[in-house]
Design brief:
Helix content is about 45%, strand content about 15%. By secondary structure, it is α+β, with helices and mostly antiparallel strands. Strand 6 (about 200-210) and strand 7 form a beta hairpin. It is globular, with a radius of gyration of 22 Å. The two termini are about 35 Å apart. The relative contact order is 0.10. Bound molecules: flavin-adenine dinucleotide.
């Protein structure tokens, strides 16, 4: 067993670190977002950043060159992710959706023409996808999707509704799950499509999140005509592609570095802040809590390294990804709770208030952290997967 990086990998880490120190936009640093928040300004900054990374070939580092990648290893990708999280780059969720989840699935199941149509543009940061999975009556039970795709000449005609569709109002394409065989068992009648979001018949309505930002949407499809060549993979076999895309989604390896960054900020705050005449960093209860978080963040880092190791072997992590996601989302909750305890009443003040601690970042984390245990499949669903596929327990 060898936990060290090679000299070449360490050199790459230094190159990335130096690049990020130089290039992260000053305005982004000034905004000081701990988590991604969507405003028109943050959106513009993240899009420009992605195009810049795309030009450098760093947006889709592991992809084949023919699709705009650099054919680098998953370990290099991990290093890049770690350094970007450490530096707090303007990286939005749309990058993960497009580069991390949808395009790798198209790479596995799409035709050569489909790959050439979408992947090089995605790798350059020119297009983004949204995920058309959840519906009002299909969330955890995703195979219950009711949105239909019916063949009509050279097209499929889509009717139905999606919900919680992150960045649908910005996306170029929707990676859509629709029912193509209403009579088949529910897991067998679903197909996956790439739908141009400019198609007539699509209506996007905003849903405002707990921070007051427009991030999710409801998306309505009314007689939307999609060319047949936009069906990805085999008709009625979409459930299996969806499962792979969800495995990619649950494998996020940048998270621990973001948590370490937050812990570092809390530690710095405790070193500088006195309460009742004593530095917070001298309080034994606070020290113990921070040490515990640091241990858990380290465990998460190792779980993520294991995911990278599986990917490096050319496999897709499955229950391992679920295990990592449950641990990461519950740790994020503990981090947010501990942060609020440490900051005390100051933690309840948002940015803009002169007495807000850490510019309201912990408050924002506290308000949004529960969503990580829901998006991409709830923690209950991840535990079901771990029980079945990890432990081999019967389905029910
Ligand atoms: C931040 C965020 C971003 C999202 N982005 C997108 C997106 O871009 N595209 C998209 O399609 N969707 C998106 N979603 C939706 C997300 O995938 C669903 O919310 C999630 O899958 C849960 O579905 P639901 O909300 O319908 O809850 P339900 O499925 O109704 O679940 C309600 C509760 O019942 C529990 N439950 C349900 N079934 C079981 C079971 N079998 N065993 C044990 N417990 C169970 C759940 O764990 C949950 O606690 C997003 C959600 C969030 C929070």
């Amino acid at each position: 067993m060898d936990f060290s990086f090679t000299a070449e990998q360490e050199r790459f880490r230094r190159e990335v670190r130096e690049y990020l120190e130089r290039e992260v936009p000053p305005r982004w640093k000034e905004l000081g977002y701990l988590i991604w928040e969507e405003t028109d300004e943050s959106w513009d900054i993240t899009r420009q950043w992605n195009r810049k990374l795309g030009e450098k070939g760093w947006l889709a580092l592991t992809w084949p060159r023919v699709y705009g990648g650099q054919e680098r290893s998953h370990i290099d990708q991990l290093i890049l992710d770690e350094e970007m999280a450490r530096a707090g780059t303007p990286t939005g969720i749309e990058t993960a959706i497009t580069i991390g989840w949808v395009c790798p699935t198209i790479m596995l199941f799409g035709t050569e023409e489909q790959k050439l149509r979408y992947l090089p543009d995605a790798a350059k940061g020119r297009i983004i996808f949204c995920l058309g999975y959840s519906e009002p009556n299909a969330g955890s039970d995703l195979a219950a999707v009711r949105t239909t795709a019916v063949e009509d000449g050279d097209h499929y005609v889509i009717n139905g509704q999606k919900v919680w569709t992150t960045v649908a109002h910005r996306a170029d394409y929707c990676w859509l799950a629709a029912r193509t065989d209403p009579d088949a068992p529910k897991h067998k009648g679903v197909s996956m499509f790439v739908v141009d979001m400019k198609s007539p018949g699509i209506t996007v309505k905003p849903l405002i999140n707990i921070l007051g930002f427009h991030s999710f949407n409801e998306v309505f499809f009314d007689e939307v005509r999609v060319p047949k060549e936009n069906l990805v993979g085999q008709k009625n076999m979409g459930w299996y592609q969806l499962a792979v895309a969800l495995d990619f989604e649950r494998s996020g390896v940048g998270t621990p570095a973001r948590m370490h960054r937050t812990i570092d900020r809390l530690v710095a705050y405790c070193r500088q802040t006195r309460r009742n005449g004593r530095l917070l960093s001298e309080d034994p209860v606070i020290r113990k809590k921070l040490a515990r978080l640091s241990v858990e963040a380290e465990v998460l880092r190792l779980l993520c390294y294991r995911i990278t190791w599986i990917q490096e072997k050319g496999k897709t992590p499955n229950y391992e990804a679920s295990l990592t996601k449950v641990f990461a989302s519950e740790l994020l909750d503990r981090l947010a709770n501990t942060g609020m305890e440490i900051l005390g009443p100051y933690g309840m003040l948002d940015r803009g208030s002169p007495r807000a601690a850490l510019r309201g970042e912990i408050l924002r984390l506290y308000l949004t952290s529960p969503s990580m245990g829901i998006g991409g499949g709830t923690s209950e669903i991840q535990r079901n997967i771990i029980a079945m596929r990890g432990l081999g327990l019967p389905r029910k």
